[in-house]
């Protein structure tokens, strides 16, 4: 019986089969979710449902004995949970995130050199401008907002709230702020958008027709100031609790693609990888930030989002797929390197390509599965390149069952890793998940789970 946390047990002897364990520890069940992080200073700045628990990162660093002077890497850094933990305890870190908006959130969370005086002055300026501009603009609010925002945004806010948000956004842009002060305030404003919306803008879907009560009476400038002062306080509290020499550690973050980090991260330079890649569950990361992207004018249409974001991310949603694109056929590299996984994938994708024709939505789950493993193959290959010998990479991920066809993602990832040169892998189940495949009207009965895949490089 394997107990997660006993270090020597994570380093399995040769030829041992992966062991799946069902831990009964309640808190461990939440490691793959953002629940813990939502309550923790700095981690909570932006609600990123794709994020994981900071406690899982702390646990892994301890379990694998990663200490000062060593380096942890998160190839799917998202909003920066791994790197914030590393920074707090003075461990060097690397992070790669392909989504530009989420990357900015991570950058803000990782920059603790914010000058509170500059922030306070900026807030006072913004408040003054709201007071002066709002009455002047109110009469023509309807036309101003209609010209400024796509329909989705107009549907999510009352005119008075949206006008105030617009003034805050524009004054913020016009102030002569340092780059890091601007980013700090930008993330504060971004995190407010869903709170002050009168529509159901909770993750994952935006439902402009459904109203919610929690936003009632919230005044954007008041909430903005409250949120920014809380963020400043979070930095103060975190620095007070951090290791005294936390600032000596080096951190490198890239808004890049973790399928290939040659030139960014040296070979054999990483002591530990802790990450959670996109799950194979049709979650469209680009679309989920549509509200923020539209509000800040980073995108105006679905097409803009595809061009600037969707196309940069690893395949994890059918919305990224075009059926004629050869990138969504199992690559010859994956086929040659991992014949065992290739055979299983081929069987599953053949079944999916038949099943889709019998379904209303005709979703391209067959190509989604191939594209996902093509991309994960490349990312794992890069992870192997950067990891030092005798070190461990930990992947938090979920399996899936599109159209009821079970894809044991954790097992495939482990097997691909072995073929790439990792010496062993182990799978630990964190929790069982609801047996439904999102967006699939015909629910299936396959029990899904969230697991940790531990890969060792000898
Ligand atoms: C499950 S989330 C990780 C969340 C992170 N653990 C946190 O706590 O915020 C996966 C992330 O991978 C990012 N991603 C997708 N494709 C990528 C790629 N090719 N390179 C780097 N990051 C990518 C997504 O944008 C998403 O933020």
Written account of the structure:
The chain is α/β, with parallel strands linked by helices. Among the domains are: about 15-25 and about 320-458, no CATH class; about 115-240, no CATH class. It is built from 18 helices and nine strands. It has helices spanning about 5-10, 25-30, 55-65, 80-90, 100-110, 115-140, 140-150, 150-155, 160-175, 180-190, 220-240, 285-290, 290-295, 300-310, 330-335, 340-355, 365-385, 410-420, and strands at about 70-75, 90-95, 200, 205-210, 250-255, 270-275, 385-400, 425-435, 450-455. A seven-stranded mixed sheet has the order 5-2-1-6-7-9-8, sandwiched between helices. Strands 3-4 form a two-stranded antiparallel ribbon. β3 (about 200) and β4 (about 205-210) form a beta hairpin. α6 (about 115-140) packs across α9 (about 160-175) and α9 (about 160-175) runs antiparallel to α10. The longest helix has 23 residues, at about 115-140. The radius of gyration is 23 Å and the shape is globular. Mean pLDDT is about 90; it is low at about 1-25. It binds S-adenosylmethionine (SAM). S-adenosylmethionine binds near residues 102 and 257.
């Amino acid at each position: 019986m394997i107990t997660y946390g006993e270090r020597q047990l994570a380093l399995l002897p040769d030829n041992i089969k992966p062991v799946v364990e069902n831990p009964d520890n309640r808190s461990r069940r939440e490691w793959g979710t953002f629940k813990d992080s939502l309550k923790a200073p700095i981690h909570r700045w932006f609600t990123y449902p794709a994020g994981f628990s900071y406690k899982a990162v702390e646990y892994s660093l301890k379990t694998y004995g990663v200490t000062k002077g060593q380096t942890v890497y998160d190839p799917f850094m998202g909003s920066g949970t791994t790197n914030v933990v590393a920074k707090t305890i003075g461990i060097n870190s690397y992070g790669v995130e392909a989504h530009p908006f989420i990357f900015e959130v991570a950058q803000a969370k990782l920059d603790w050199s914010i000058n509170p005086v500059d922030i306070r002055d900026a807030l006072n300026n913004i408040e003054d401008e709201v007071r002066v501009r709002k009455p002047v603009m109110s009469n023509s609010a309807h036309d101003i907002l209609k010209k400024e925002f796509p329909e989705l945004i107009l549907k999510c806010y009352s005119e008075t709230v949206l006008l105030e948000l617009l003034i805050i956004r524009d004054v913020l842009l016009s102030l002569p702020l340092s780059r890091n002060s601007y980013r700090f305030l930008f993330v504060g404003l971004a995190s407010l958008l869903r709170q002050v919306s009168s529509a159901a803008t909770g993750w994952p879907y935006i439902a402009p027709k459904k109203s919610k009560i929690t936003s009632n009476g919230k005044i954007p400038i008041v909430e903005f100031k409250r949120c920014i002062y809380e963020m400043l306080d979070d930095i103060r509290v975190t620095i007070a609790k951090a290791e005294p020499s936390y600032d000596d550690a080096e951190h490198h973050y890239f808004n890049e693609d973790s399928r290939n980090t040659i030139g960014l991260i040296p070979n054999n330079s990483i002591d530990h990888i802790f990450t959670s890649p996109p799950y194979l569950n049709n979650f469209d990361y680009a679309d989920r930030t549509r509200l923020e992207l539209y509000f800040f004018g980073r995108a105006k249409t679905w097409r803009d989002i595809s061009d600037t974001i969707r196309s940069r991310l690893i395949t994890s949603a059918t919305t990224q797929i075009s059926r004629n694109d050869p990138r969504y056929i199992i690559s010859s590299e994956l086929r040659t390197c991992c014949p065992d996984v290739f055979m299983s994938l081929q069987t599953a994708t053949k079944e999916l390509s038949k099943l889709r024709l019998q379904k209303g939505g005709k979703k391209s789950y067959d190509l989604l599965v191939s594209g996902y493993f093509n991309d994960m193959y490349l990312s794992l290959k890069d992870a192997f390149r950067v990891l030092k010998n005798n070190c461990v990479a930990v992947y938090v991920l979920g399996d899936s069952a599109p159209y009821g066809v079970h894809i044991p993602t954790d097992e495939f990832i482990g097997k691909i890793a072995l073929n790439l040169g990792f010496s062993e892998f182990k799978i630990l189940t964190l929790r069982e998940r609801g047996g439904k495949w999102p967006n699939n009207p015909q629910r299936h009965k396959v029990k899904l789970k969230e697991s940790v895949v531990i890969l060792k490089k000898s």
